[in-house]
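The protein record quoted for completeness.
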Amino acid sequence: MRVKKAAFTLAETLITLGIIGVVAALTIPNLMAKISEKRYQASYRKAYSTLNQALKSALEDGAIVSTADGGFVSTGANTGKGLIGKNFRALSAYFAGVTTCFENNAKKCWECNGESGQGSVVTSNGKGCINGSYAFIDASGMSYYLYSNDEWPILVDVNGFSGPNVLGKDRYVMYFTNSMNKKMYTDDINVIYPWKDVTVKQRWCPSGNCPNTSRLFGNGGNTYDIDLDNK
């Protein structure tokens, strides 16, 4: 006597697999994006902590110079004599296993095809870099780049030469300042602080969504909602 057992037909099986495939196609990219965002955030916090620990050590050793005149020098930008540049170079000495690019070779330490605030969002979408500026890579592979040897900002790429090299994702903007006033140029440097969240498209944030501050501290009120080049 034969006993009939319930089973799926081939058509039902194919339909089920198709539904699973559609759901996976819709959810996996979002899931991977969230995982990447969390990874970038964790690396950004590490970079922020490492930079400030290096600054603390450099201050204790008297290696940080005053930027009372704004950090600029009369000989012009990218001459290698800027006060901001001197402090940036001093920091690199406090990183383990660091590779420095201080001899007109920033491209060896920084991916210049990514967003770095160069030009404008209209002409270059904020991409490019100045090869004469300073850059270095730490032992973990994070890249640090000084936009100009004579002025702010410090940019960090938390995964080095790997993509996407986009501001607000794996790249963030910071600067030397004083913890009490947060001004871009101050003679009493004691901290490296993140630039404000940028909420409009500009060369420091071509996407219009760059959480420099909130990704570290979780506050969304410290924002910059105008284009620096067209204010």
